[in-house]
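P.,

For your records, the input lines for the assembly:
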Amino acid sequence: METVVDLDAMLFEGLCRMGDTTLVLGHRVSEWCGHAPVLEEDIALANMALDLIGQTQLWLGLAGEVEGKGRDADMLAFRRDAWEFRNLLLVERPNGDFGQTLMRQFLFDAWHQPMLKALEGSNDPRIAEIAAKAGREVAYHLERSADLVIRLGDGTAESHKRMQTALDRLWPYTGEMMTSDATDRALSEAGVMAAPDTIRPQWEAVVGEVLGEATLKAPEGAYMHKGGKQGTHSEHLGHMLATMQWLQRAYPDAKW
Amino acid sequence: MVSVAQVWDWLDEVPDPEIPVISVTDLGIVRDVTVEGETVVVTVTPTYSGCPATSVINFEIEKALRDKGVAEVRLERQLDPPWTTDWLKPEAREKLRAYGIAPPIDGTRAEGVVEGRIKRLTGAALTVPCPRCGSEDTQKVSQFGSTPCKAAYQCRSCLEPFDYFKCI
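Structure tokens returned:
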């Protein structure tokens, strides 16, 4: 019996890692709404944020179900504190300029797509069906972010400089995506979720090819930050949650 | 008691809230209809996971059936198999084109950056004909248009911008 209980607790963790990551990135991307450099990009960013928030509802909805304490996706999103969030550090990085937002998106999409492909093979049908649904949406995210990284990296001197700066700043946050801890390994051994380190070869292939075409160079031997998946976050997450959660905190259980 | 066929007929008249020229059955999102005693159960699959129209669609379906005198309606969500534009009815594609939206081209859904690049390099990139003048000289303006399910295009012949209902 005890192992079953443990697996559910770990599954809750694993699902929060997916759902919190899409939630935090979805919120970050939505911060561009009304501020993007051109109308088409504004609309594209808002639509991607919408996809990510929709996927969050599925992941966190399932997390609440697995946890079995009556918390739904909204409760998990709006009524937890920063240290309870399990998102990757990369996605809580502030938007910076448009180039930094795009580079963050590309580095994430290049991980997100193969990760969802792997999760389609989960022996838990609830996970496999969410991954299959989300995967089709994310394939478009990756096409778009890769195209734009190439266009801006291999663009003007100014756009190239900004994209290289973005890459240098964000690179140290990519390692965490492909590092497996005890929870990841246990879930992978049980066949319910994929171990993040198995995604590395696919991520490196896509990132290497796109950066090459974009004439950008990944920093070598960079220190890699980690801790987001275990709840150790940068100060940026708290500020973001203060904005995102204020209404539900000020008026708990508000309905409209 | 109401028949399953009757319910399908009624659903044929429930418009998609964002593209009102097509119905929810044209869109292929109604996966199943069953009648359990006094309760009509409609199984709906979402188009995109974050589509804001999903809750409106559920509301419209329930309202339409209640207007027809059905007392008990239950809506169920089905994720698997995920919705695909392949399920759009052939007549719906014509309705989309007449409305100014280029219908999806089957078998062209995004599969990731590597596959997409192979298609471009081998010249198999997507050609989306203009829904207004029919020209194939069109260009993609943005991967996402007015909704997640559409991309923004422009025709280089008649210069009109248009939405393309992407294949998914």
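Two observations worth noting. The CA atoms of residues 117 and 125 of chain B lie 9 Å apart. Chain B touches chain A at residues 46, 48-52, 79-84, 109-114, 116-117, 141-148, 152, 166, 168 (CB under 8 Å).

Regards
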